[in-house]
UniProtKB/TrEMBL annotation:
Listed name of the protein: Large ribosomal subunit protein bL9
Keyword Ribonucleoprotein attached: yes
Role: Binds to the 23S rRNA.
Gene Ontology cellular-component terms listed: ribonucleoprotein complex; ribosome
Keywords: Coiled coil, Ribonucleoprotein, Ribosomal protein, RNA-binding, rRNA-binding
HAMAP family reported for this sequence: Ribosomal_bL9 (MF_00503)
NCBIfam families named among the record's database cross-references: L9
MF-aspect GO terms: rRNA binding; structural constituent of ribosome
Nucleotide-binding listed as a keyword: no
Coiled coil spans: 55-82
Family matches, as Pfam families: Ribosomal_L9_C, Ribosomal_L9_N
Length: 148
């Protein structure tokens, strides 16, 4: 049975792909859960239009991601947190905290799920991390945590 995936399915494909699977797998698993729809000629035309718009948007996005990368790598992201006398933070610096500061620096929203800190930040100091802005663009960031 030919189906169009509406969500990413592990070991099968990503959203928007047309795949052929056994009838029972499609009828009993993929279709009831909303992971796929049945393939038709009209749906294929719609997928082709969506793919064309994605390709156009991807070229614009990669240029924008490179600009954001330059802005993030040029600056040190400074985060202020409450800390004890020995420099240990009350709590930790999360990826959401870094994403908020990165969004302010870049001028564009940065998703917290795209931030990768190499370690848990639980004390004052300098740290490094990465922000995945696009499939091909990764920014290496420097995070400075100072006591409030």
């Amino acid at each position: 049975m030919k189906i169009i995936l509406t969500h990413e399915v592990e070991k099968l494909g990503e959203a928007g792909e047309v795949v052929t699977v056994k009838d029972g797998y499609a009828r009993n698993f993929l279709l009831p859960r909303g992971y796929a729809t049945v393939w038709t000629k009209g749906a294929q035309r719609q997928i082709d239009q969506i793919a064309a718009s994605r390709r156009k948007r991807a070229t614009e996005d990669i240029e924008q991601a490179r600009e954001i990368r330059e802005a993030l790598e040029a600056n040190v992201l400074t985060i202020t947190k409450t800390a004890g006398a020995n420099g240990r933070l009350f709590g930790a610096v999360s990826t959401a905290d870094v994403a908020v500061v990165a969004s302010e620096v870049a001028g564009k929203p940065v998703d917290r799920r795209s931030v990768n800190l190499h370690t848990n930040i639980k004390s004052v100091g300098e740290y490094t991390g990465q922000v995945k802005l696009h499939a091909d663009v990764v920014a290496n960031i420097k995070v400075s945590v100072i006591a409030e």
